[in-house]
Specification:
By secondary structure, this protein is of the alpha/beta class. The chain has a single domain (3-231), classed as Rossmann fold (3-Layer(aba) Sandwich), CATH 3.40.50. 41% of the residues lie in helices and 15% in strands. It contains seven helices and seven strands. The protein has a seven-stranded parallel sheet, with helices on both faces. Helix 5 runs parallel beside helix 6 (153-173). The longest helix has 22 residues, at 106-127.
């Protein structure tokens, strides 16, 4: 059976879906037959991005993953429009400028933890009541979840914490037939590098589309298949 037929009428919610990896995943899912909801904090930008995709399968709903009320409103809207969801991709994330611990602003620390860790918790908590056997949660964690980088303590801490949460969540929902996948990509050519390394060699990095195809493959696997991690990196060294 063709992948588009297998995934027809399935619903996926992708946070941080207005650019980069999130947008690439949205396009790949829509092409494969999913109904896709992407989120972002800027509603006007979100509308423009949805229009630019040219896909009737992609819709946008504003959400700030750090705000419990905003997350609650998002999933209430998803429930109203679709009744249930099959895939949640927790992709929304932020980095910060390189800084040693001694000078790292507390605001940068809080922003990374609130977005990259608490945001995943809030969205997973709100999505689970809408999911059933065969559903999948994918948490985009980055290789920073398992590899430390000097000057990136808040980012590393948020991603490592999110990996711990992902592993615990997997054990909790395994008995319900819901898969929880840790996405651990290496360097990917997205705008996030502008936050701390504007001259990074993007030509040596993975494309967002390559990561998207790996995620699509994982969520399209038979329901009885257990896929716990996606580790993917460029074939040449970047860092």
């Amino acid at each position: 059976m063709a992948q588009s037929e297998t995934n027809k009428r399935k619903v996926a919610v992708i946070t941080g879906g207005s650019r980069g990896i999130g947008l690439a995943i949205a396009r790949a899912f829509a092409h494969a037959g999913f109904k896709v909801v992407i989120t972002g904090r800027d509603e006007s930008k979100l509308k423009a991005v949805v229009a630019a995709t040219g896909s009737a399968e992609i819709t946008g709903m504003p959400c700030d993953v750090t705000d419990p009320a905003s997350v609650k409103k998002l999933f209430a809207s998803v429930r109203e429009q679709y009744s249930a969801i099959d895939v949640l991709v927790n992709n929304a994330g932020v980095a910060h400028a390189l800084a040693p611990v001694e000078t790292l602003p507390l605001e940068d620390w809080k922003k990374a933890i609130d977005t990259n860790l608490t945001g995943i918790f809030l969205c997973a908590q709100a999505a689970l009541p809408l999911m059933s056997t065969g559903g999948t949660i994918v948490n985009n964690l980055s290789v920073a979840a398992i590899r430390p980088f000097a000057g990136m303590s808040a980012y590393n801490a948020s991603k490592a914490g999110a990996l711990g949460f992902t592993n615990a969540l997997r054990e909790e929902v395994r008995k319900r037939g819901i898969r929880v996948v840790a996405l651990l990509p290496g360097a990917v050519a997205t705008e996030i590098w502008d936050q701390f390394w504007a001259d990074a060699p993007r030509e040596k990095m993975l494309s967002a589309d390559t990561v998207a195809q790996a995620v699509l493959h994982a969520v399209s696997a038979p329901a009885e298949a257990s896929i716990e991690e996606i580790r993917i990196g460029p074939t040449v060294g970047v860092l």
